[in-house]
């Protein structure tokens, strides 16, 4: 891993997947086909892209039972415990409706209401991610969403992975459908005979899924478009290089475009981590992916002080940040931009990916500057509540009318003035 | 106004402004020019589109003083009071960081951090909306955003409207720039010599502004793309038809594509409101706009019960909802989808546009199903905080590793297992 002074962070700038005109055209055509033909389009496109002719779109109770028999009991217990931890964490995010009253009788407030329905997209292909099912579904469930459905592309055998089905059942899904790609997004946005339209679509996917989500945004709500992910570790001389290297590699194995960065005040640690990375890389099954990530986007930055280190971190705005310093909690106040902050030697990043309870759907590629982890608020919306009293309108109608006239909106002015004792039915 | 049974609500479906390929191409070219040429592009494009060659982009202290001398003292006092009311309401929305601890020493939490910088777009042209300045800037200020800048296209005299400048100063803006259209969005997203890049852009604008916001989304955050707005009134026989008609018209005068709808159990009220609308329309300065809106998208729907009325409202998901029934508060629990809910005879919609304190930037065109009024949360982001204890990792490392292996991510599994007493520097 290259070691350098923290002066130029340009190496971290990676572009979000560039979509071609051709891809966008294909996505638009698929969306139109699904909107016009419904289920028939889904069967046809699934045969075309996933190479399987389905007999039905919805996963049956029997398939779910089958999945439970395929996953061993110990693993089911771990999934249950993870789901419980995720629920316990997200329950803390729930917001209450509130109101304030004034002595004149006016009431102002904010009503919090769960969304009616949500669709969770789970990618298929070589990687099956039961943990992503939990992370998408549990917060929606905690928010009180009435109908939560899951869509995921089937394998050539027409099935979804057993782990995905178990996680879906454990997190309280309403229905599971075999559909992937842009066609699944179209079905969730417009509805088909089998798949009802939802209000919001969440979950990661390939470039076609991302483009389709962008296209239907407005018709339904979507979560963020995810880019390549990253980890940054801020460490001083007290950090264990074995831990640091292992955690950097846990991110690097995801994707050749993942970034793993160490920011440290200790040149000794820098050298030891570089050595450890090389050593640990050798025996990794996904060595090739991890090596490409480390060589292209990996870096060790030396800084003069932890304070400068925090500045570098805020500049990067990493998806995951680990702080392995003598007193990590003391730095928390200065850390402005990071999706998830892991403090101390025991908070290895996979702890958050699977088990601690916080969400692993996090803002990537520097968007932690303005975005948040997936959370319960994403599955609710607010309504303002205004109940003006008679004395309040009498006191303020003239002021409100004046403001409306300043903006040239006479009907606005008259509407409030009507409340000032004009004849009831003029 | 047409009166019909509430069976078919299709008349309310209006499309969000369709953008043409040509418009998108123009916007992309403007964004590129601003990114490449900075200030020079802004001067050139402002001359081209706003017909004025500016001497500088930033509004000077002298211009603000001048604005104060142009707005009368009473109006300044009203703007101050409105700003105070908006602040008082939005302060209630502020969220605290929180944490939970476990007896084993684990700490899990969520850190709430204000955005570093925000740009508020304020449309120019014939309509100047000082109230929109307050609604965009005050919540950002309450959230604790460090730098809040305003951009708005100058008139041919090279000036911004006095009311806009006064509202900007009263709401605590950091800087005001004369720039509009897609070029202003480009400046906020990429930065120029004069205008620093921001993290989020909010505020309504024409189709070019909307397209530009959509293009830069991801580089910066944006608020919702607004469509045509609407009001729905739910009323029984106790409602005053004069009030109902006046409030419907206050929405209709905004835009020929605005929608104003009454849903009522009372045929008598329906007839009286239709009459009143006709009567009140006659003397409105913006009669032409309001009439087109009422004739095209206005409707009175008769329902058999208030319960059916609420169902119709939830189907519409209106931006503004007024409830003028004998006991409006009793219906609040059943109302699921509405941007702002005005209860009782005194809560005329303009009360919320200008003065009560709630935000007037609301989800339009049915997006209240999944979107919220502009609020303090929009100007903050969250970071998860995970501090796992030594005993927690000892207890759970094997489970976490098993979950990682289920997903085929061996480096994840090893990272947590390293914590289980392997040699310090293997």
Specify the CATH homologous superfamily of the largest domain in chain A.
Nitrogenase molybdenum iron protein domain
pLDDT averaged over residues of chain A: 93
Please count the helical segments of chain A.
15
DSSP E strands of chain A, number:
14
Considering DSSP H and I runs of 4 or more, what fraction of the residues of chain A is helical?
Answer: 40-55%
User: Numbering strands along the chain, what is their spatial order in the largest sheet of chain A?
Assistant: 1-11-10-9-12-13
Count structural domains of chain A: 3
Shape of chain A: globular
Major β-sheet annotation of chain A: 6 strands, parallel
Cα separation of the termini of chain A: 81 Å
What oligomeric assembly is this protein in? homodimer
Q: Biggest interface, which chains?
A: A-B, 129 and 128 residues
- CATH level-two architecture of the largest domain in chain A: 3-Layer(aba) Sandwich
- Please state roughly what percent of the residues of chain A sit in beta strands, choosing from under 5%, 5-15%, 15-25%, 25-35%, 35-45% or over 45%: 15-25%
Query: Any idea of the CATH class of the largest domain in chain A?
Result: Alpha Beta
